[in-house]
Each structure stands twice: as structure tokens, then as C-alpha cells.
Design brief:
11 helices, single chain, Dihydrodipicolinate Reductase, domain 2, eight-stranded mixed beta sheet
Length: 340
């Protein structure tokens, strides 16, 4: 058995508590060692064996820690990741990796210069809805793909309590917060688009940041990808709609892993990542006789744990991390560009 990767977590809000700590705790390749908690000391209640750090410097410079998970507010990712790399740590950075392409390039360059891995946490590549969608696309059943619609709908018509999300600081707004997920999915499928057009809007009373965003990505072979994000959709639309020359695929936005983790379920528990009945995708194929065939496509089991296995393999065995540097550079270029 290879040596465990001793890991420190930069925050224990929802991201740390739900998306990182349970996997670091259960994956045999990691030793979950410490968490930065300046005020509330709740992580040790959940994981009594870890150390709670009061100051970021103490966590980042701790000689026992090999990997730092940077899951702090978006506008702090660059500075904390840079400090961790300079302290000789590998870094796993929450999406978005940083607030500008200049910052991201500096982090990747710095990682190479100090011999440490820079990995970006894009967990929705391992969500059940997207995994099922990839299987449909790879099957060729839809023929030539004409258009893909990816949506992230919520209804929150008020200003939230998290200042870093609601104040006009770098990396705030719905496009950086949620758009990074859907942009990464598109880029993971088809790479950097030929062109991108962006529309942003502010609709909630008093909003200082975009709470609506729309992207139109153009790819070779006349493929169009449309990404829409909104905080004001009372009746959420299907998260994934794909139309091709032979048929269509429609999938609701779903990934039970988040709900299961919030409820206290662990990644190793029976049924973890499995969608409940009623979440199947709808595949419609037109056969050679012009007749429509309707098929229900079950959700693929969600596998966030695979991301952490990829982190382990990247650090211990120098295997390529699936979220590649060029993917993140393409993403930040689009996030940063001016809106129409």
C-alpha cells in the first residue's frame, strides 16, 4: 500500500463539510489531518482525530501536510493556492480555480517550478446526470449533435448572507459560482469552443452581482452549446437537453450525492450515488421508417470518490489529472471575457 497523502482543508463550510471531508475521511489513500477554523470549531466534532488550525499560516506551513484543499471564497483561491505551493504543498483548488486567466497561468507555472501538482476540483464531471449523458453521446444514437442546452436553475429572490458571493468582488456572481460547473462539462466533452458570447443580468432587488447568465458556445461541425444559469426560475427546466440528427435526449438536473451527504450519508454507504426512480433520462430516437422510439435511460451512479482517486493517482503515481490545464485556461478565458 502506498503512503497516505496527509491533507489539510482550508475551510469547513458547506464545501468542506459536504464535498471534501467525507471523501478525505473514507478514501484509504488520504489521511485527513487538519482544518482551518477561525471561529466555529465544528470539524473536530465530526472528525475527532483531526487538528483544528486557528491561522492559515499554521495550516499552510505545517510540515506533516502534503496536500492543501483550497475551498475558500473564490476571490481568495489564488493567494491561498500560491502560498501553499510556495510552502511545498500540492493543491486541490475548488472551482473556479481563480478569478482571471493570468492568476491561473501563474499557479500552473508555479506548480511546475516547485514540482507540485495543481489540480482543480470540478466535481460535476462525476455527477450522475452528466455521466449518463456522456454514455448517450458516446453511443452515437443521436447522430450528429446539433445543439446542447445545459441549465442550472434556482429560485432565490433575495440577497444571500454570503458577502463574497453577493458583493461585487472578483469571482462573485452566478456565472463564476455555478457557470464554472457547466462550462467545465462542455469543455470536457468538446474542448475550447471556436467562439463564446456572454449575456449577464441582475434581476433580484438590490443585487450587485449577476444572478442570470447565458453563454452561447460555437464548436466545429455547426455544434452549438447553450449554457443558462438563473436565480429566478420557479419551475426548473431540464438540466440537460441534446438534439441531434437522429434523436433527442432530455435529462433532469440531478445528482443525489449532494443530498445524501447533507443528510449524513457516507460515500461508502450502500446506495450512495444511486438516483431514485423517476430521474431517468428520456431518449427519443427516430428510426429509418420515421417512427419514434422512446427509451428511459437510468442515471449512472454518481462517483465523486473517483475525483479523489484521480487526485491520489496524480500525486503518488504522476498520472494525468483529468481536469487538464488547457481546460481551465479555456474556462477562465470565457468567464473573464466581457458580456454583450
Amino acid at each position: 500500500m502506498q503512503k497516505e497523502i496527509t491533507t489539510g482543508l482550508m475551510a469547513y463550510g458547506m464545501s468542506g463539510k459536504v464535498f471534501h471531508a467525507p471523501f478525505l475521511d473514507q478514501h484509504p489513500g488520504f489521511k485527513f489531518s487538519g482544518v482551518l477554523e477561525r471561529n466555529k470549531k465544528s470539524a473536530q466534532k465530526d472528525y475527532p482525530y483531526i487538528r483544528s488550525f486557528d491561522h492559515s499560516e499554521d495550516l499552510l506551513t505545517n510540515s506533516d501536510i502534503e496536500l492543501i484543499v483550497v475551498n475558500t471564497p473564490n476571490n481568495t483561491h489564488f493567494e491561498f493556492a500560491k502560498q501553499a505551493l510556495l510552502a511545498g504543498k500540492h493543491v486541490l483548488i475548488e472551482k473556479p480555480a481563480a478569478t482571471s486567466i493570468i492568476e491561473v497561468k501563474e499557479l500552473f507555472d508555479l506548480g511546475r517550478s516547485v514540482g507540485k501538482k495543481v489540480m482543480i476540483y470540478q466535481n460535476r464531471r462525476w455527477s450522475s446526470d452528466f455521466l449518463a449523458t456522456k454514455e448517450v453521446l458516446e453511443s452515437g444514437k443521436l447522430g450528429q449533435i446539433i445543439e446542447i442546452h445545459l441549465r442550472f436553475d434556482r429560485f432565490r429572490n433575495f440577497i444571500g448572507p454570503k458577502a463574497f458571493k453577493e458583493n461585487p468582488v472578483p469571482g462573485s456572481g452566478i456565472l463564476y459560482d455555478l457557470g464554472a460547473h457547466l462550462l467545465d462539462q462542455a469543455i470536457s466533452l468538446y474542448g475550447k469552443p471556436l467562439s463564446a458570447r456572454k449575456t449577464l443580468g441582475k434581476y433580484r432587488p438590490g443585487s450587485q452581482v449577476d444572478d442570470y447568465a447565458h453563454l452561447h458556445l460555437k464548436y466545429p461541425n455547426q455544434l452549438n452549446v447553450f449554457i443558462t444559469l438563473s436565480m429566478l426560475v420557479a419551475d426548473p427546466q431540464p438540466g440537460i437537453m441534446i438534439h441531434g440528427t437522429k434523436g433527442s435526449f432530455i435529462k433532469s438536473f440531478c445528482d443525489t450525492q449532494e443530498d445524501q451527504l447533507i443528510s449524513g450519508m457516507k460515500p461508502g454507504d450502500a446506495g450512495f450515488g444511486e438516483e431514485l426512480p423517476g430521474k431517468e433520462g428520456h431518449l427519443t430516437i427516430v428510426n429509418e421508417n420515421g417512427e419514434k422510439e422512446h427509451v428511459l435511460v437510468p442515471s449512472t451512479r454518481g462517483r465523486y470518490m473517483d475525483l479523489f482517486e484521480d487526485v491520489f493517482q496524480c500525486i503518488r503515481n504522476d498520472k494525468d489529472f483529468p481536469v487538464k490545464e488547457e481546460d481551465i485556461l479555456a474556462q477562465l478565458e470565457i468567464l473573464e471575457q466581457k458580456a454583450d
